[in-house]
Amino acid sequence: MRERIAVDMDGVLADIYGQFLKHEFEDLNIKQSLDSLIGKLENEAFSNHDKYINSPNFFYDADPIEDSIEILEEVNSKYDLFIVSSAIQFPLSLDEKVRWLNKYFPFIHWKQIVLCGSKELISGDVMIDDHFKNLDFFNGKTIIFSQPHNLNRENGRHIRVDNWKEIGAILL
Amino acid sequence: MRERIAVDMDGVLADIYGQFLKHEFEDLNIKQSLDSLIGKLENEAFSNHDKYINSPNFFYDADPIEDSIEILEEVNSKYDLFIVSSAIQFPLSLDEKVRWLNKYFPFIHWKQIVLCGSKELISGDVMIDDHFKNLDFFNGKTIIFSQPHNLNRENGRHIRVDNWKEIGAILL
Questions:
Q1: How confident is the model at residue B111 (pLDDT cuts 50, 70, 90)?
Q2: B27 catalytic, yes or no?
Q3: How far apart are CA A14 and CA B97, in angstroms?
Q4: pLDDT tens-digit series, residues B26-67
Q5: In which order are the strands placed within the sheet that holds A80-86?
Q6: Alpha helix (H) residue ranges in chain B
Q7: Domain residues for A26?
Q8: Residue B106 and which of A147, A165, B53, B79 are 20 to 30 A apart at CA?
Q9: Is a pLDDT exceeding 90 seen at residue A155?
């Protein structure tokens, strides 16, 4: 039986920091460096966080993270892949996220998509996420994808990766 | 620790047959009886199934199933409740389903909502659903909620209930 893997969207497949930086620049003419955001949650890092995240196409216009498309396609051929994204809090994002996946990851069937609030119900063999809160209660192998907000802490339980090539080296 | 329960929406909380019958009557001036639909899947029972299900507000305008609001509120106070709905196939439904839950079940927090394709990843202690395909691989207690499409078969593994009062009698 193939292993089941749950892959997060924001900050793992979708470059959400890029979107925040772009919106902030257009809104406030500010260009923060990623280094200056280390250790801050996104709503601490961007003063108008809620305004940006609730604006139409915030999620749909995000760029895919480097190498994610090619490597996820290979992962999809070897694992039971599910995309698991926290989305319910932002109702506008729901439809955008499905359309975004269809656009950049057309090999992902609708049956493989899960949009949730909490990820507590999600079971499987491997989880890739950029939030400790999602990985900490998962009972399989856990991989933390580096993003500025998670760089300041380490709990030793999760494998840290900085990019999709490192995910490929672990999974493929 | 509280038991975790996953409750389906369509055909368990939301009266989807009522919506199909209403749309079919407005569209074709046909009024099928529920008895005549026994054993037919919804897309077999309603000739313009896809047209209705993809029309705006099909899900948002559904009535809650009798007694579901009062009894689910009690369930919510005694269990870790999650609403788990197959929705990704119908992108219009995503936002409608969240708004519908907020309207009729305001005690349900966004963290408790999961919209998915397949329900394979969902783990927990109890699942209530009207589809055998969702219950059959669930590893906890399974409750099948009677709807015309599931009345023709029985596999002995699931507890059958015909209404929310019966769910209350089992869970509360």
A1: very high
A2: no
A3: 25
A4: 999 999 999 999 999 999 999 999 999 999 999 999 999 999
A5: A159-161, A141-145, A126-129, A4-7, A80-86, A113-116, B113-116, B80-86, B4-7, B126-129, B141-145, B159-161
A6: 16-28, 42-45, 49-53, 68-78, 91-104, 132-135, 164-171
A7: 16-53
A8: B53
A9: no
Q: The complex's ipTM?
A: 0.92
Interface of B with A in 14-73 (CB under 8 A): none
Q: Which residues, other chains included, contact B156 with Cβ-Cβ below 8 Å and sequence gap of 6+?
A: none
Of A87, A95, A114, the CB nearest to B91: A95
pLDDT at A48: 96
Would you say residue B34 lies in a domain? Answer: yes
A84 and B112 within 8 Å at the Cβ level: the answer is no
Answer yes or no: A130 catalytic: no
Mean pLDDT, chain A, integer: 95
A141 within domain boundaries = yes
pLDDT of res. B15: 98
pLDDT-derived band at A10 (thresholds 50, 70, 90) equals: very high
At residue B128's C-alpha, the angle toward residues B136 and B99, to 5°, is 125
A156: left (phi over 0), alpha (psi -120 to 50) or beta: left
> Is B88's CB within 8 Å of A123's CB?
no
Residue numbers in B near A138 (CB within 8 A): none
Residues B121 and B69 in one domain: yes
Is there a contact between A115 and B118 if contact means CB atoms under 8 Å apart? Answer: no
Same domain (yes/no): A67, A136: yes
Mark whether B28 and B77 lie in a shared domain.
Answer: no
Look at residue B58 and tell me if it is in a domain. no
Please give the interface size between A and B, counted as residue pairs whose CB atoms are below 8 Å apart. 92
Please give the structure tokens belonging to residue B4: 């975790």
Same domain, A79 and A124: yes
CA A99 to chain centre: 16
C-alpha distances out from residue A32 to A36, A40, A45, A65, B23, Å: 7, 12, 9, 19, 53
- CATH number of B157's domain: 3.40.50.1000
